[in-house]
């Protein structure tokens, strides 16, 4: 939901609410900001009868010159020194009041005479009967909060058992509960059609077994591809996820009738889907879909960033059911066939997928509502559409990339140049790993940075204490993930706060392989304010979390700052006290920070409560 305050002495507050995150911006264009130290932020929660000043992150060095891990401050004395700010601690479907107090003077003699700017907001509900419910896990095992709560211990090492459950619940937020609810709603006579790459999460497997026991017809297509190998060091690697998937089916006691197909053909490509379709009753009407980026694994639910997307739309469900049917026969090439036969079978599979439904010619042709896109398919039309959508953003574009920035994206974004800065959108890239030169690459490295209006953040954590920030851990060290440990979600945002927002979300990694080779699914969602606001606020939460850590990684010399010049290596760990107000200069018209504020001030549909 979108909100705006009344103007107070030239200031207006804009807010976008998701389920658990609220993103704010302060419109300061008509205000007198001379001498502004920042904003003290007070939050009032009428539901729980709480009123307090929110905690601050940075401190004034003249007040606290040597902060340490025990330092705790609020914005009452150490304000938010920014015109954009986020509250990551909100609860679903709740009314809040926020008061932003402009502070002037000196850190040891603060002038609090300016009246506060009040904004009233309401967060999105979590579980509804609406068309879309969206569930993000916490996705930040590498955090101060996990250290404070659980001491950076692996969940499986925590005692007593209740503490382990608390850690897992904190990490998953409500993603696991949403998965369970989707399965539990199916009753005798209904069908659940599932298609999974990884099927290694016992709580979900048990829920599906319980569904079978109460008369639900469960039919699963699971990855069963043989890819065992011995690496260059002589270590043997069993087929993954085939062996784990088979072991989980046995452990959960799922009957043979529940396995519609072990997906084995096209052995060199990934059966990368993570979806379920609910087909209701005797009429066998496709009704609802669960999809997104979440693998059915402990790391998928509790570790790396992921999203589950629940869609209540009969047309979408019918499309997913039809796609499921094409996979049920295990289409594609068989190991040992001739190249000609294999190529013909792969083409037949792509043709069958492409025949399910037409796709938009470009992003401008995406229909209002929800459009489903399935892979594999021939050509680059779909990937080109994603690239063009991001590059064509008017004010804001955001994307998560678990496996790097593809050549097509770089070719487009490298022209998003500083020369056109006042007119060009600001683009945010959230990456699993830093984008940096590969010494084995055959082509020159193309950096994307501030001169291209691009911010980058990547998976990282604080390896050592840093003033008031303590040492952190990550999902790999916690035993949750082995490969992708930070950013596994796959979604794209084009002007999410505009009147015509576009969100793309699903299982595909915005790559050639995910378009042409793998079994994948994506949702193209146009015009849904609820969807756009939830994805936008969660993207902010994740990006801001990792951006700070990415900057510190560069400053500590662990990363090449030249590979990401958008990381502000001059950013101080303390609040600005300079007479020249250096922090305000970063918001001059045309700068990236100014553009971030403009995204809010231009947003459509903001209301005042």
From TrEMBL:
EC number: 3.1.4.4
Listed InterPro entries: PLD-like_dom, PLD_domain
Span of domain Phospholipase D-like: 181-323, 483-542
Catalytic activity, reaction form: a 1,2-diacyl-sn-glycero-3-phosphocholine + H2O = a 1,2-diacyl-sn-glycero-3-phosphate + choline + H(+)
UniProt cross-references to Gene3D superfamilies, sorted A to Z: Endonuclease Chain A (3.30.870.10)
Pfam families (UniProt xref): PLDc_2
Source domain of life: Bacteria
GO molecular function per UniProt: phospholipase D activity; RNA endonuclease activity producing 5'-phosphomonoesters, hydrolytic mechanism
Keyword terms: Hydrolase, Lipid degradation, Lipid metabolism
GO biological process, one term: lipid catabolic process
PANTHER family: CARDIOLIPIN HYDROLASE, MITOCHONDRIAL CARDIOLIPIN HYDROLASE
Family per record: Belongs to the phospholipase D family.
UniProt protein name: phospholipase D
């Amino acid at each position: 939901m979108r909100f705006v305050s009344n103007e107070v002495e030239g200031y207006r507050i804009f807010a976008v609410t998701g389920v658990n995150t609220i993103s704010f911006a302060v419109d300061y264009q008509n205000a007198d900001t001379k001498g502004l130290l920042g904003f003290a932020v007070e939050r009032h929660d009428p539901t729980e009868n709480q009123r307090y000043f929110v905690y601050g992150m940075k401190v004034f060095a003249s007040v606290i010159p040597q902060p340490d891990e025990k330092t705790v401050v609020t914005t009452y004395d150490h304000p938010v020194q920014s015109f954009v700010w986020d509250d990551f601690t909100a609860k679903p479907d709740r009314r809040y009041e926020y008061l932003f107090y402009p502070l002037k003077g000196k850190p040891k003699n603060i002038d609090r005479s300016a009246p506060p700017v009040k904004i009233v907001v309401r967060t999105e509900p979590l579980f509804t009967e609406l068309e879309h419910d969206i569930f993000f896990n916490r996705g930040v095992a590498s955090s101060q909060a996990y250290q404070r709560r659980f001491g950076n211990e692996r969940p499986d090492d925590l005692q007593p058992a209740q503490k382990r459950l608390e850690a897992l619940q904190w990490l998953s937020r409500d993603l696991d509960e949403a998965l369970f609810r989707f399965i539990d709603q199916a009753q005798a006579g209904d069908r659940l059609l599932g298609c999974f790459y990884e099927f290694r999460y016992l709580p979900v497997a048990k829920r599906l077994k319980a569904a079978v026991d109460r008369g639900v017809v469960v039919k699963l297509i699971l990855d069963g591809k043989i890819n065992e190998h011995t690496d260059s060091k002589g270590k043997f690697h069993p087929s993954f996820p085939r062996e784990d998937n088979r072991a989980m089916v046995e452990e959960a006691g799922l009957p043979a009738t529940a396995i519609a197909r072990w997906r084995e053909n096209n052995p060199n490509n990934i059966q990368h889907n993570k979806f379920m379709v609910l087909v209701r009753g005797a009429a066998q009407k496709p009704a609802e879909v669960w999809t997104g980026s979440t693998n059915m694994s402990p790391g998928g639910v509790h570790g790396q960033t992921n999203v589950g997307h629940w869609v209540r739309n009969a047309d979408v469900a019918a499309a997913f059911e039809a796609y499921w049917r094409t996979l049920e026969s295990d289409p594609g090439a068989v190991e040992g066939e001739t190249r000609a036969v294999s190529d013909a079978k792969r083409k037949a599979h792509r043709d069958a997928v492409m025949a399910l439904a037409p796709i938009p010619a470009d992003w401008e042709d995406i229909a209002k509502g929800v459009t489903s896109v399935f892979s594999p398919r021939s050509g680059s039309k779909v990937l080109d559409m994603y690239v063009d959508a991001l590059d064509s953003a008017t004010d804001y574009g955001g994307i998560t990339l678990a496996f790097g920035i593809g050549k097509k994206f770089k070719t487009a974004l490298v022209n998003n140049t500083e020369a056109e800065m006042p007119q060009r959108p600001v683009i945010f890239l959230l990456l699993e790993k830093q984008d940096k030169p590969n010494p084995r690459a055959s082509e020159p490295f193309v950096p994307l940075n501030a001169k291209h209006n691009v911010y980058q953040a990547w998976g990282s954590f604080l390896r050592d204490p840093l003033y008031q920030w303590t040492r952190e851990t990550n999902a790999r060290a916690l035993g949750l993930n082995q490969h992708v440990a930070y950013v596994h979600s796959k979604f794209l945002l084009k002007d999410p706060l505009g009147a015509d927002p576009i969100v793309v979300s699903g299982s595909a990694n915005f790559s050639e392989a995910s378009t042409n080779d793998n079994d994948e699914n994506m949702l193209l969602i146009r015009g849904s304010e609820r969807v756009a606001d939830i994805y936008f606020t969660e993207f902010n939460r994740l990006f801001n979390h990792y951006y700070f850590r990415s900057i510190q990684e560069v400053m500590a010399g662990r990363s090449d700052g030249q590979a990401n010049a958008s990381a502000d290596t001059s950013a101080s760990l303390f609040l600005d006290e300079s007479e020249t107000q250096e922090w305000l200069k970063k918001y001059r018209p045309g700068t990236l920070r100014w553009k971030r504020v403009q995204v809010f001030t231009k947003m459509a549909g903001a209301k005042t409560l």
